[in-house]
Amino acid sequence: MKTWGGRCGPALVVLLAMAMQSAPAVAADATETVRKSQSAFFEAGRDFQARVKMTLITREGQQRLRDLTMLRKNGEAGAQKYFMYFHSPADVAGMTFMVYKFPNRDDDRWLFIPAINLVNRIAARDSRSSFVGSDFTYEDISGRDLSADAHTLVTEDQIGGRKVYVVESTPRSPAEYARKLAWIDQTTFLPLKEEYYDVQDALYKVFTADEIKEVQGFPTAVKRTMVNVKTGHKTEVVFERVQYEVGLGDDLFSERYLRRPPERWIK
Amino acid sequence: MIAAKTPVSHVVIMILAWGVPVAAEEVSLHGFVQGNYAARITGQELSGPEGGDVFLGEERLQIKLATSSQGSAFFLKTDAFRDAVARITDLDVREAHIDVRAGALDLRLGRQIITWGVGDLLFLNDVFPKDYAAFFSGRPLEYLKIGSDAAKVDVFTDVVSVELVVIPFFQADQLPSSRRFFAFDPFPGVPRVTEEPRAELGNAETALRLSRNLLGFDAAVYASRGFFTTPGMRPDNPASPTQVTLFFPRLATYGASAQGNALGGVMALEAAYYDSVDDRTGRDPAIPNSTVRYLVGYQRQPWSDLTTGIQYYGEYVFDYGPYRDALSPGFPAQDRLRQLLTVRLTQLLRYQTLRLSFFAFYSPTDEDYDLIPEVRYSVTDALWGAIGANLFGGKTETTAFGQLNRNDNVYVVARYEF
């Protein structure tokens, strides 16, 4: 007994301790990790400004460009306001798009079409719709409710020398994906990679954060790619001129500025 | 044509007089080249040089010039086009305005497109001019709206946003012309003269919109004072007319709208009272009676990249008895309550490069319809093409869509944007 205990005791104690600590805590930890990740990825700073360039690339290599200015302001209890101004392509140039995002209820969305000087509300229930024809959905751009998925910690791993949590998220009601695996940086909590699986459990979409820069103390994924592995289509996104804490006023997110975008902010 | 009515020189001179902002910080130049053609597929032709099967054929160059500097901006959108059916080449100043922003106040002076209300292709409180001929012959949607030569002042406060529009220059709707369209004419072959309200201060149209967010809904109230933009017809002698005068009776409108999220989609409500100022008794058959118009709309996305919308619209005629009594025998009577349903389906495919859309107007009271299927494909970011159709029908040829029954057409558009 003594010999056995002497050989295996410390290891057993450690294992037991880990099990005791993590058994009830793992699920909570995974949810907390995803919460931190969403916070780092979608909510950094009080407000945010960037020039976003999305390149949509077909399997054959044909490219299309979406060039927009994105403004974001955080509100109370997870609410956010987004304002987007499209610089190109020509057929959407001058359009503005505004979203009031609320936790646990439908977003309010408005689109301004300059050709007919019309501000219109857009039905927003389906967050799975493609954002401007890219491989990113609306949810990929502005986040998904934390409680919409059940989160579990699968393992810990390393990507490019960085320690990551690998978290699996399973939607509680039917969603675009049947499950998602996310590789979340243990330090910055940014997702470095995500894999999306369909109902047949086949991989169909892969997200990668290709370049991370610290901007005003906020780690920011300034280059990111979403590849649809089934169609071969992919979207590369570059965030330029990223700035946080720029002092966006609440009045900016209004019909007035939808119709006449604020010069100062949309450059 | 619209261009013929556009006071081009007038607008240009006004802009020069105001002065284009000097030392502009930002100058942008965009535009497009477009070909747009439509042909009647009913096999019927009108007499006259513009009455053939191909009743729309045009090439168009649009230039959009924008400059801005320290809160002020200038914008010019001008089309140069060749109308191959009328065999004319002309200019159309679509928009030309100066913007000034000062604190809570925005001012826009010049030719501008104004769109109010929450209807989808149904306009209640939007009393600004429209080009229905363009719409029914398959020209792109933006050509449904005509610019108004106007001054617009917006004031933004925490309580409410105020928009005030003053239009000294009357602009009528463009209706399908008898040169190119089969349309109902109660006085066939009788010569006509048009009397538009002159540019006088007393004739200036004014329109007011107050808006704010109310319980998550975008709410607005409206009022306007001006003229009907579609003409009344007055024969010199009702029994055997030798001349018909087209004129534009006075109109005042009062209304409200609301739009917001409800039932998993977006709900729209709008109503307007049309006060027919020149015929409040309803006894003048040449002038529309006062009406109340209302609209309920709902749109949602049942699945990815599919948008569906339905609308119900009603138009109730006041003083219906006097209207029927005054109507000359043999003239088609409007129903006391005209009702209209619309359906919209839009499916985006192939990373939103392919758009399949369908829009339908159907009136259960007039028993007429217009069905508009369209396929649009973006070949590249710069180039897109579309093919679609307007399919009209109705029980009689005197109703809004029924009269266009013989104008079923197929249209194509190709546009290169820069």
Q: Care to describe what's here?
A:
The complex is a heterodimer of chains A (267) and B (418). Chain A is of the alpha+beta class. Chain A has one domain: outer membrane lipoprotein receptor (LolB), chain A, CATH 2.50.20. Helices cover 20% and strands 46% of the residues of chain A. A 13-stranded antiparallel beta sheet of chain A has the order 6-5-4-3-2-1-13-12-11-10-9-8-7. In chain A, strand 1 (47-57) and strand 2 (63-74) form a beta hairpin. The longest helix of chain A has 21 residues, at 2-22. With 418 residues, chain B is mainly β. Chain B has four helices and 21 strands. Chain B has helices at residues 2-5, 8-18, 132-136, 320-326; strands at residues 26-40, 54-69, 72-83, 88-102, 105-112, 148-156, 161-167, 192-195, 205-214, 217-227, 232-235, 244-247, 250-262, 265-275, 291-303, 306-317, 337-349, 354-363, 368-378, 383-394, 409-417. In chain B, the strands form two sheets. Chain B has an 18-stranded antiparallel beta barrel. In chain B, strands 8-12-11 form a three-stranded mixed beta sheet, with no helix packed on it. Chain B has one domain: Porin (Beta Barrel), CATH 2.40.160.10.
